[in-house]
Amino acid sequence: MEQPDDVENLEADAAVDGQGPEGPNGLQDTTPVDLLRIKEQMFNQCVEISAQINAVENKRTCSTSEAEYNLADNVTALEETKTEHFIKTLALHRMQMGHAIAEKLQQNNPESESIKAVNDRCMALCSQIKDLQQESKDMGDQITDIRKKRLELKQLTRDQMKEMELLKKKYEPPEFEKYKAAQQKGQSNIEKYKTMTVLAQNVLRGIILACKINWLDDPKLKDIGMTLEDLPITD
Amino acid sequence: MAATLIPPDLNSSSSTDSSSTSNRSISRSLRVAEKAKKGIKAEDPIVAALKYFSKVQKGTPCRGNDEFENNLVTVERVAYSKGLSPEAISVMLEFAMSLRMGTVPCVRVLKCLLPSTVVPHQAVVRAVVWLCVGKLSIATQVLFIKWVLTVFDMIDAKDNLRAIYGFLFSFVTEENLCPYVCHLLYLLTRKECVRLFRVRKLLELHSKLGKQPYLLHLLSLYKVFCPELVTLSFNSRIRAGFGNHNGPWKLALNAIQKRTAVLVPSDLPLALQTQEKAGSRKRKLGHLDLPVLTAVVQSQKQTSLSQMVVPLAQIQSFVQLLENLHLIELPAQMGSLLGSSLALHYLDCVQDESAFLRINFWLGHSLHEEFLFCGHGGASQGSDEAVQFLERLMSTQDFLQEGFSSVEAFLYKFLNVWDGSLLRPQILALLSNVPVVPSTCISRLLSEPLEQLFFTSKVFFKCGLIESLNGMLVKWLTWHSVYALEDGRNVDLDTSMNVSRSGFMLSVGELVRFVGRLATLGLQLEGCHSLLLSFILDFYDTVCDIFQKYGLPLVVMIPRSVFYPALFAFDPISVDRLAKIMNRYKINLTAAKKQEKITGKAFHISLKTYQEFNHYLAFMVNCLWNSRIFQPGDDIELSEELLHESGVPQYWASFSLTNHPAFHCYAIDFHHKCWPERRDVDLKSIQHLQQWGWYLEYLFTQGFDGLRQFIQSNIKTSSRGP
């Protein structure tokens, strides 16, 4: 830390170098003022140090997000190293095992006979497994092909339906122009009466509800009440 | 009957306890005597009880009325043991909702209204009308609506309920009732019910109550029917459903169904023979059973002259479906569509948004609310139901070749709480049907829950999961290869899938990387288990061919942690498959380079991929053919001292085609066939040129096609042997 050195230096200066800032005279001149100056300097330095410590602390708290970022990298690096170690250990182990089994097979004792039997069984199983795997792969490919075809069919169906919708919209009945006006008038009439009907139905429903009676018991009210949702002509 | 003996002064509240007690005792003894005389069956009390409730006069006090108490207890007993018959339901519901004996018995009766077969619709309509009279307390009203929601599937016809849609709608303003009424309206709404004033009312409530999920659901259904009337826009997936309103009846209903199913096993086969629908009705009451396909309008009357709507339930054959394609009306209970292939055909052709919305809603509800009940049933019957339901769901998804968004949402939630063993095959199969997930969501939705399960499970789960993810990848790639015909075109399949090509490539890349990580760590955890390795190699079988087979310009190299365990494996099949995979990689990479040259379009395969591939190839050839591995500068470097310490002489040849632990037995076999007279096996003699060629032929006849293609395409055999 700077402070003790500076203080020492100051003291050394004050002590050794007799010439204080005040005057060339002896120690008596330098002591009170210089001491005050030293005190001031020390105070400033303390403030500086505390400021620096605070700054360092803040830096540490800011870097947690950095630490997290580094964490991800470190985890990856760790996993890579683990993988490398694993692979190398695996290679060594397999090499040694292979060699040991080969050595064993060179000897002609009962153990090697049993190993040979297991080997033969393994070879037979391997060819079976190969056949089965091939079969399942072929079937898997067939399934994927069928799936593809079905998806294509779906797309085709949808395109056709869209076309049909377009055609339907475009279709105009013959002699459309002649009756266009009449049809439009009729349509607007229907709309008007529909609105009136809905309104009337609403009002009736409101009345029935406000009366707070059991309208099912009265046959006339029942007829009205049960048909308040019906419109003779739907959209 | 005994009732006639009691003086008809039940109206007056002056019927004292003493007189009623004596009357009761007289009536009871007489009744008992009559029973003994005629030998009546045990059902008589319930008939008597029902008669009492249908005839009791208004204003009869219920407190201190023992006859009422006994009859009610009888009814409750029958209800909880085998459920009430439709007539009983009518009588009891009428009694309760009319408040003939005050409000106290109403709640009690409602709570015991457990139907055994169906609920007659007239009773429900009458009850709703009593609701309109407005004398019930709010809590009772809520209870009633909850009951209607619970037994909704058992109501035999819904058209009369639809006729009073407006009356039901008027209850929406009641704040406590609003959620339940909205749910009920959701189930009953048809296009004709959507009126402007109703939409306005709902929007008003929406602005008053805020974004309540029940309001949003109902509004979104209205929007689907009449988009021009509803101008609000909704999140494509409103996650929260209507909530579980089953209350006190669900468990009791469950128990009743189990009992009735057990009690009538002999009836089931008969019923199934005569009419499939009636037979399934007996099992219909299981809450995960798909409801029976019934028509919306039971009555045959035609309300209008021009529009004749054919209910889907009446369509019996495909030809009929084609004839009436534009006139079909969907049933009230959308879940019933999942059981019928005709219905699914119809759904597939006519992309009816409202239908999908309703099906998704029903599926979401069933999966979230009902499924969890089933799994913890304890009885094997419970989990059988769940298995059947999920299998039905899977076959529907296979039929339609697309998944449902609600199933996807459920799956993501379920994976977070799954223990890895409950219904494993079904859940893994459902997982493989998940459509393309945006790459940013893969880690949150799939990686996190699956990693947790993967690392803490047995090797068989690991294999199953890798297989399921392989299936998922294949389905994504197949879908993409059919639907993305032009470059850069946004594939817009349905409202939930809007994936651009680059987004799709990112997703695939992310998935492959995720599985690569699982594979790396899985192999390390399980010590290179051969079964796990086999499934992982299956996955890379798919990955290596992404470009050639599916036309997606993406090549992801096999990671080291899978390559080396496969190369050093004990079983020759893994080595052979690895060779095949390397072959396919080579073909894909050369094709990619060619395409780049021809079309000039940049094919973004990084240099690193090519370098990795070259390293692998060089290592493999050196290893198998040149007997030269573990040399300094190689891909795997081991120090000299370590190799000496291992005690293996000539370690550099320890993985050649003759010395490799996987092929060693073949080498020995070949040696015996070649030199039968020799006793000591000297594998070096195989390495002479002629014998080497024969040895290779021998290996190829054993079925190692992968090796054969590898050697033929990478090694010039005209040169000398190893």
Structural shape of chain B: elongated
The helix content of chain B, as a percent range, equals 55-70%
Which chain pair has the greatest contact?
A-B, 65 and 78 residues
User: How far apart lie the N and C ends of chain A?
Assistant: 90 Å
The number of helices of chain B is: 33
Quickly count the helices of chain A: 6
Mean pLDDT of chain B: 77
The quaternary organization reads as: heterodimer
The order of strands across the largest sheet of chain B is: 1-2
Q: What is the CA-CA span between the terminal residues of chain B?
A: 108 Å
Q: How do the helices and strands follow one another from N- to C-terminus of chain A?
A: HHHHHH
The chain-level mean pLDDT of chain A equals 81
- Using DSSP, what is the number of strands of chain A? 0
Query: Into which percentage range does the β-strand content of chain B fall?
Result: under 5%
Helix content of chain A: over 70%
Q: Nearest-angstrom radius of gyration of chain B? A: 36 Å
The secondary structure category of chain A is mainly alpha
InterPro entries (chain A): CENP-H (IPR040034), CENP-H_C (IPR008426)
Main location (chain A): nucleus
Keywords (chain A): Centromere, Chromosome, Coiled coil, Kinetochore, Nucleus
Region (Disordered) (chain A): 1-30
